[in-house]
Every structure is written in C-alpha cells, then in structure tokens.
Amino acid sequence: MLFINFLAILAVLSSCCAVAENLRGPRSEIVREAFGPFLGFGKRKLQRFQNRGFELKQSTTCENVSQFWFQDAVIDNFAPIEQQQKWYNMGQRYWINRQFWGGNNYPIFVFIGGEGEESCSRLTSRMYVYQLAQEHKALLVDVEHRFYGKSIPTPDTSTENLKYLSSSQALADLARIIGFIKKDLNTENSRVITVGGSYPGNLAAWFRLKYPSVTHASIASSAPMLAQTNFPEYMDVVGQALIHFSGQKCFDAFSTAAEIVANYLYQGFGSAGMQKVEKDFQTCSSIETDLDISVLLSDLMGNVQGTIQYNNEHNGVMNVTDICKTMTQSDDTYGNFVQLQQLYRSANGQDCEDANWKDTVQYLTETGAARSWTYQTCNEFGYYQTTDSKVNFKHRKNHSF
Fold first, then answer.
1. Residue 79, Cβ neighbours under 10 Å: how many?
2. 245 burial class (0-12, 13-18, 19+ CB within 10 angstroms)?
3. Euclidean distance between CA atoms 335 and 317, whole angstroms
4. How many helices (H) and strands (E) does the chain have?
5. Cα–Cα distances in Å, from 24 out to 29, 48, 312, 315?
6. What pTM was computed for the model?
7. CA–centroid distance for 370 within its chain
8. What average pLDDT score do residues 128-139 get?
9. What's the confidence (pLDDT) of residue 317?
10. Residue 400 pLDDT > 80, yes or no?
C-alpha cells in the first residue's frame, strides 16, 4: 500500500532544530535568509539544515567574545579512567564573553549548543541571555555539542563512532568543561545557570537534575522533555495555529488538499494521478517507490510547519495569515496548495521538489549536522511528527512509515 498521507509523514529534522524565540534578543537585530526555516527530509532540505540556512547569519568574529578549545574533553566519559581517550584534533569548542562579568562570586550563564554549529554570535546582544548577563554582571559561555560544528571527538562520523553521540555524553562534557572554566578563571564560588532552547532546553533541564552540584539553576525554553517516537502533538499545534490565526476554513482547505493529493497518489506509480502530482509539484525526479512519496510529502508538510513554527518572527517571509490567504483564495483547494508550494520554492530558490529516497540516504552518509541529528533522533529521541492524533486533520490515512 502506498504511504500517501500528506500529513502523516516523518519530519525528522523538525521542531528540535530551532532555538526558542523567547531566548532571542530584539527582533530588529535578527537577520535570516529571506526564505526562512526548513523542515523536511528531502536532500535539499537536509542541505539547508546542514548549512544552517534556517539559522541566523553568523559572523566569524564578535566583539568581546573569544573562542577557545577544551583539550581535556574525553571521547567516552563513562569509560574506566585508564581507558579514557581525549578528543581527536583540537578538542571541544567553546566561547566566552567577559563584557559584563563582575569576577569571582558573580554568576556564569552557560548556553548549551544543540543540533548544529555554534558561533560567537550566540553570546551577543541578539540573545535574551545577553541582557540577563548585563543585569547580573555575569560571565557568558557557549559550549558546542559533540559531533556538531567543529566539535568532532572522533576521526570520522562512522556509525561505529556515532555510538559516542548521546545526550548523556553531552551532559558529561558540559560538567567537565564548566569545572575547567571555573578553575581556569579562579571563580569557584560563581553560581552556574545553564540555558537552552528546544533540544538544548532539554539538556539544560537534565543537567540541573543530573549534576545539581555543578549548576544552580537552568533555563529550559520550549524543551520537548518527553522523548517519544510518535510525536503527533506537534501537528496538533500546527492545526490549532491555522484555526487560531485564520479560522476553520483554512484548516479545512489544507485537509481537503491533503486528501486530493492522496487520491492522486493512490492511483499508483506511472498513473495519470501520479504524473499530475509530479508535474504540479515539479518533482526533481519521477516517483518510483513509497519512500520517494514519503520524501516529497515530508517536504511539502515541512514548508507549512516551518511557517507556523516561526510565525511572525521575521520580516519578509510568509506567515500563517499569508499561507491561509493563498489556501482560501478560491474553492480549488488543490490548486491553491499547488500555488502555495510554488511560492515556497520561489522563496527558497528551488527549481524543483525532492522526491527521491536514495538521494536522501546518500546525503545522510556524509559527515554533518543532518547525519548527526538523524542518528540522535533515531537512536535516542524519536520526535517523529505524525497525524496520528484524534484531533488532527480529517481525511487522514494512518499508515505507518
């Protein structure tokens, strides 16, 4: 049976990729690519995730921020001491901003890196924690997560080496580096507050629970604390947002369009319906397998998810009201949906839509954030966003991926 439910697709690189909005600084200081965030599982979506196309543009140098390497980081924090080996190359990367720090006895805010590359801009005025540091005369620290950015503890990211990629190892890394920084700066009495949003928010909360002697408090923003394979609640919020901002008509338009897409795909490979989908959504290649369908539909869903997740956060990108206006401009909901996806491709600089599972798998063999985060979600968290909820889009067909 074809896996054709538009809204029952795994969006592996999804909500946990974003830093929570309420940890950011003034909106006017935020600069993003015009096309905004990306969610989905096609090769081009993964490339943008890899290149942090959805993240803030980051400079390589920042005033008052210095970059360092923690060279005593250990590949396996839980191995016997005599078997512990230091990281490959330079060690774990971190940054410090002493601009407001009052010295010993004043607090230290530690920003925890997540599923992407960190940079010095994390400790600048674009982040809310910067304001907290100014208020409390605190030291600012940002620590890059193992297997992301330039903090790679092993010679490569083979599946064998990725066994060292886990939240538990990341928390242990954090305990080591915080102890080192406090000793190096002779500030043993400073209280530590860990900070994170989304997945790093999880780490912030877990760190407070697991290492209470190292941290005084944690700020865990938009943290999906309950790790679950099936995560239908995400799409619950997507549906609720459509209704909240633009009414039931918009919700129903997406639901109807999803059913029409499904009906075309149900006609089978090589059918007139399948060819229509390929033409209307300008797929980069012909659809030949159920998994090709899953890639296409995850990208189409990901576009809508991205708009809702970052609604009104940035100027110059579509918000929920905009996409609902397109979806309700005529009674032809399928035609409206086709037009909406064309608008996304134009804004994203794409000339076609991915629909090739083999391309996705091949891309994930390459070292980078997409490979690392896919491994973590598969091995440790899940967070796969389906429409298995009873309160989600109607006309759904609950096939398992």
1. 12
2. middle
3. 21
4. 12, 6
5. 9, 21, 14, 15
6. 0.84
7. 10
8. 95
9. 87
10. no
| CATH, domain 65-221, list 3.20.20.140, 3.40.50.1820, 3.40.50.1000, 3.90.1150.10 | 3.40.50.1820
Mean pLDDT of 224-244: 90
| Per-domain boundaries in the chain | 15-55+232-381, 65-221
Q: What is the mean pLDDT of residues 10-18?
A: 35
Q: What is the per-residue pLDDT for 385? A: 83
pLDDT-based confidence at residue 52 (cuts at 50, 70, 90): low
Identity at 102, one-letter amino acid code: G
Residue 275 is encoded by which pair of tokens?
Answer: 């060819």
Contact between residue 105 and residue 111 where contact means Cβ atoms under 8 Å apart: no
CA separation for the pair 67, 61 (Å, rounded) = 9
Distances (CA, A) of 198 to 15, 194, 224, 383: 8, 13, 6, 12
CB 355 within 8 A of CB 292: yes
User: Quick check: 127 pLDDT over 50?
Assistant: yes
**CB neighbour class for 146 (10 Å; exposed up to 12, middle 13-18, buried from 19):** buried
